[in-house]
Write a structure and sequence with these properties.
mainly alpha; Arc Repressor Mutant, subunit A
């Protein structure tokens, strides 16, 4: 999945996603103006990122606001198009977990995802489930708790142990 995404080869996609993560949500016009790009080019790139699930569009009165999805945050974390610390802070706030747990998990998981190219890049609970299922690295207890909350089941003792 990570290798298939055009972010590694397309600096404009990286710039737009990085802008949305660090300053968004934003309109396509504002993104184009701030990044000094033609607005048609920005609209096309946004549509491409929507198809990949990296951004979502919100209708807001007369204009659409573009915001990064969780997948967008994770892909950007991997490709370095925005501050990793900023991304970790957003994810830690979303899941109410210390960012060190998320950082350790993401570093391990994305390293495996890059080599295997079969690991899903989606919401953190989905990735944690897959990591437990496929025995990819260790899952810290706070992340197992996120998974348990996501599926509505208390975590099993063997799931919470860090390998």
């Amino acid at each position: 999945m990570l290798n298939l995404l055009a972010l590694g080869r397309d600096p404009i996609l990286r710039d737009i996603l990085g802008y949305v993560i660090s300053r968004g949500p934003a309109t396509a016009y504002r993104i184009a103006r701030e990044l000094n790009l033609h607005f048609v080019q920005v609209y096309r790139k946004i549509r491409q990122m929507e198809e990949l699930g990296l951004v979502k569009r919100y209708c807001c009165e007369r204009r659409d606001l573009i915001d990064a999805t969780e997948r967008g945050l994770l892909v950007c974390y991997h490709h370095g198009c925005a501050s990793r610390d900023l991304i970790l802070n957003k994810l830690a706030a979303r899941y109410r977990v210390e960012k060190r747990y998320i950082k350790d998990f993401l570093d391990s998981y994305l390293r495996h995802a890059e080599s295997k190219n079969d690991l899903p890049i989606d919401e953190i609970p989905v990735m944690v489930f897959y990591a437990v299922y496929r025995r990819v690295g260790g899952v810290a207890p706070p992340l197992a708790a996120i998974l348990a909350e996501y599926v509505g089941v208390p975590p099993a003792p063997h799931v919470t142990a860090r390998e």
